[in-house]
Amino acid sequence: MKQLIFTLTLFLSFFLTLALDAQNGTVNGTITDADNQETLISCTVILQGTSLGASTDIDGKYEIPNVPPGEYNLVVSYVSYETQIVRITVPAGSAITQDVALKSASVSLEAVTVTATRRTDTETSVLNLIKTSNLVVSGISSQQITRSQDRDASEVVRRIPGVTIRDGRFVIVRGLIERYNTVWLNNASTPSSEADIRAFSFDVVPSSAIDRILIFKTPAPELPADFAGAAIQIFTKSNADENSFSASYSMGYNNQATFNEGYEKYEGSPTDWLGYDNGTRDLPDIYPDDPTEVSRLENNVNAENKAKIDQYGRAFNKIWTTSNTTPFLNQSANVTLARRFLIGNVSIGNITALTYSNNNGYFNAYRAAYDGYDVPGDRPFTRLEFDDDRSNNTVRLGGLMNWLLIFGNNQRIEFRNILNQSSEQYTNSRVGYDNGNTAFLRQQEFFYQSRLTYSGQLSGTHKFKNDIIQLNWTLGYAFANRDQPDTRRITSALSYETFEFDPNAPYTFQFTFNPDPRLFGRLYLDNNENIATGTVNYTHTLALGDNFLPQLKAGFYTDLKDRTFSARNIGFVRGSGANSALFQQSLDEIFSDKNLNYDTGIRVSEKTAPSDSYEAENTLYAGYLALNIPFAKKWNVYAGVRLEDNLQQLSISNTPEPVYNNKQTDFFPSVNATYNFTERSLLRLAYGKSVNRPEFREVAPFVYYDFEQAASIYGNTALRNCYVDNFDLRYEFYPTPGETVTFGGFYKRFDNTIEAHLRQFGSNLSYEFTNTQEAFSTGLELDIRKNFAALADKSGFLRNFKDFTLILNASLINSEVNTDDPTERDSVRVMQGQSPFIVNAGLYYQNDELDLTITSQYNIIGERIVFVGDQDNPHTWELPRNSLDFTLIKGIGKNFQLRAGVRDLLNNKVNWVQRFDFQKPNGEGQLEKVERELPYYVFRPGVVFNLGIAYAIR
């Protein structure tokens, strides 16, 4: 209902504001003194709420060209004069003259600054922000985003130096996995829609909604202290310079999924195409809410209780089979409306957007696990080997509605809202063998999850005493729900012994006497997270001399987060009197009502434990004090300290006291120094202390069986905070406003690093979150952005390259973990998730005369540890893969664009391996070290070809 109301509101906003004209006009005039009629030189004249403005010339005249038709507030200001706001109407395709006479102020004023609304979405504006920032920061603009096929924030952010993506939605900065990052959306904390990962899912923010993304790589007093990789800030569009309307539609061909007759799908909900389940996958209405009720009935066996259990089992849907379908082309659409209008002296802007996408994918994956290596025989002891066919569908329905109010001298109030409803559905059909159970297996998993994410912020920016004092504040609320209803798993087996006797013997469906999430389990997970945030930042410029203007900064921040997680672990088991022949029948027959019988067939059972559900909260209060000190136009030192008081608590059912209680009060000092060699080159040096706190899931005593990994995931209530010392050194050179060359290095020292370690529990593989003692990470980073516009003045062949822009960024990183843990495989190794190198490259061609843009983008990362091994199991490594994308955008007429592209053209393998090393005789009486690299998880994700059209009115 929430998403339906929001969507209807968005549509209503469109129809109420579709009044647009395409021809621009001009505003000009003369500014004079009201008392003596003398013209005034260098007056500031702006159109309130836009980036359009001008200054008066020696004759007091001004001209603002290319103004979209409509009503505006013309703001005129000058030193020692009263600012005037005049309402004007700009007609389409013509000029309007507006003269203004300013009155002298009753008292002499200090310098007055009136500025137009600063553009923040262009490449030049983002580069200028990076250049003038006190911190080490990287970023990307909306302008650069439009040149790519990137569909969401996760695809966009990987274009930023030192950034990579995992699982299509989790951001890794400087090779550090996603748990080391903190993410803010429009200056407010973001929720995690993932039950198992400490991360914000970047795929919930569509690329069309992004104004800019900034990645802060060094701590600062005003930034949250809980990060080691980066503090990432996503800003959605809010300012409407002019009335505009745009719409786009595209189709995509996936070479492995589209029109693939082997694509499997199980029957779901009628609303799956909208990204949510309408209740089809919910627990049956008659099934008890109390997770212990079925067990209570089983422990008090009588005819009545048996009948109840049979009734519960028959109420579940009986869909245990798939059908082959032929997926159509992928679909995506976007509609955006920008509208600005005036109410009195207030300029109001609105941006409203709707996005929808429906994509199919398919891949075949190889998966294996090993029990060690047979050195004499030079072969692995293979535990299991599977071949997976995975057919998946993802749907995203999103909306954005942002409001901006500008009044007076650029005082701003913003109200930003983004809502995203998305879903993922897949069928994984598996064949292979399991040596641990000495059987050939056939397995399937029916998986569905929906995610609802909302983030809203009300914020204000205010300036007083001619910008000497600045105050900004934000109130934010965010909500995330991850619903994973009715995950079904099917297993049938044929023992080795039976196979040797009769290779054509039928497989037997594996029903045991106790519910097992791997064997005809039905798993229901629900995760809800709420975050309320509030922040106030105060800046006071101290006029201590003509050229000495230090700034005092102070602020307060609070973050109140709570999570409710629940799991129902339900399965179907065999009755004590069931005939084994039943389990060689079809699933339709096995799950018929007559065979849902407590004694002679199968029955529903539940083994949900108290630890399968938990409630958690995190309460953070923070304050900071900082001083920005410029020295002699060359040096600038920004230093301060942040105080954070944080309390993490997690409780499980039927437990009076929290099972995890982590309260810490810490001070986090930081200093960022900048030396300006010239106006175009500078050097940055920074130090800051930060923290990396455990995530709720990492400390929850909840065990989750991951079907794809064929392993269980455990939490750890003994986890401690990880503290990090961060050092950065960077040189920056800006040859022209649109070009940059930066080169730098960093060093990080970690205490109590949090990692996912492989563990052996019984005969099954498992992963557990643990602290390691000490780690280091050092790296070099290079970022080049070079355009060749200067070649326009050349003659001959070189002139053909004038429309090209080259973007190249690369990182070389070395990390080291030192530990004396006896369970560790290595006392010295690299950090989990740390890549030794990262390369992003892009070549852009943009010809305004032809209205043509062509883009090629390349990415590769070095090998990294996915899971840390133990004494018996080696580390699991992800090997490098090359990614190459092409995009073509061609304008057609005044309002249309044709967009075409190819994503992941090379379609390299996603390749996880394990490495076994041992000593082997070399035939000369000596031992030599031998390493064998064995495949662990391998698949190709597929190539996607896109073709679309866009329409815009401005």
Describe the secondary structure blueprint for this structure.
Layout: H1 2-16, E1 25-33, E2 44-47, E3 53-55, E4 61-67, E5 70-77, E6 84-90, E7 95-97, E8 100-102, H2 123-132, E9 137-141, H3 142-145, H4 153-157, E10 163-166, E11 170-173, E12 181-185, E13 188-189, E14 210-216, E15 230-236, E16 244-254, E17 263-265, H5 293-298, H6 303-315, E18 323-325, E19 330-343, E20 346-374, E21 379-407, E22 411-434, E23 439-464, E24 469-495, H7 496-501, E25 508-509, E26 521-541, E27 551-574, H8 587-590, E28 602-606, E29 614-631, E30 635-652, E31 660-676, E32 681-692, H9 696-699, E33 703-706, E34 711-714, E35 722-733, E36 740-761, E37 764-787, E38 804-818, E39 828-829, E40 837-847, E41 852-861, E42 864-867, E43 876-878, E44 883-892, E45 896-903, E46 910-921, E47 927-939, E48 944-953
Plain-language structure description:
With 954 residues, the protein is mostly beta strands. The protein has two domains: 2-102, Immunoglobulin-like (Sandwich); 325-574 and 609-953, TonB-dependent receptor, beta-barrel domain (Maltoporin, Chain A, Beta Barrel), CATH 2.40.170. 7% of the residues lie in helices and 55% in strands. It has nine helices and 48 strands. The strands form six sheets. The protein has a 22-stranded antiparallel barrel. The chain is globular. It starts with a helix and ends with a strand. Mean pLDDT is 85; it is low at 1-22 and 107-117.
